[in-house]
Amino acid sequence: MYSAWFKLLFELAIQLYETKVYTYYFDLLFEETLKRHHTKSSCHGFGKEVM
């Protein structure tokens, strides 16, 4: 995750919701990411090579 990019978002969320901000990271294999991508209606917008 790009912490510098999300820093302002997280700070705003903390201001709005106090300290009840949770973040999650999914450690998935690339094959699983592709499998999940193909289940989305937008899957034809880009494919494996771009990902």
Topology overview:
Blueprint: H1 3-17, H2 30-37
Provide a descriptive summary of the structure in words.
- The protein is mainly alpha-helical and 51 residues long.
- The protein has one domain (3-45).
- Helix content is 45%, strand content 0%.
- The protein has 2 helices and no strands.
Instruction: Indicate the low-confidence ranges by residue numbers.
Output: none
Q: How many distinct folded domains? A: 1
Strand pairing plus helix content: what structural class? mainly alpha
- Percent helix, as a range, is 40-55%
Which descriptors would you attach to this protein?
about 50 residues, about 0% strand, elongated
Summarize the structure.
With 51 residues, this protein is an all-alpha fold. 45% of the residues lie in helices and 0% in strands.
